[in-house]
Design goal:
Helices cover 23% and strands 17% of the residues. The longest helix is centred in the first third of the chain and has 11 residues, at 2-12. The chain is α+β, with helices and mostly antiparallel strands and 64 residues long. It is built from 2 helices and 2 strands.
C-alpha cells in the first residue's frame, strides 16, 4: 500500500508534508578569492566577505 501511495505522490507531483518541511536556504555564498596552488588558505567563519552561510530546516531526527 505504501508503494502505491508513493507512486501517486510522484505521478501527481504532490509533495508529502514531511518533505515539504525540509530544505536549505543560502544566506551568503562562499567566496574563496584568489587561490594559488600549494599555498593553503583559511577562511574564518567570522569573515563577512568570504565565509558562506546557509540555513537547514527540517523535522527533528529526520533522515536526509
Amino acid at each position: 500500500m505504501r508503494t502505491a501511495a508513493a507512486w501517486v505522490v510522484l505521478l501527481l507531483g504532490v509533495t508529502p508534508i514531511a518533505m515539504a518541511q525540509s530544505g536549505v536556504t543560502g544566506l551568503r555564498p562562499l567566496a574563496f578569492g584568489t587561490l594559488l596552488p600549494g599555498i593553503p588558505a583559511n577562511i574564518l567563519p567570522t569573515d563577512p566577505s568570504n565565509s558562506g552561510e546557509f540555513t537547514l530546516t527540517g523535522n527533528k531526527n529526520a533522515q536526509v
